[in-house]
Amino acid sequence: MRRKDREITSPEAILAIIEKAKHLHLGLFDEGYPYVVPLHFGFEYTNGNLVFYVHSAKEGHKLDLIRNNPNVCVELESDVLPVSGGDIPCKYGALYGSVIGRGKAEILADDKEKTKGLELLMENQTGRSFNIDSGMTGSVEVIRITVSDFTSKARQK
Question: How many structural domains is the chain composed of?
Answer without folding.
Answer: 1
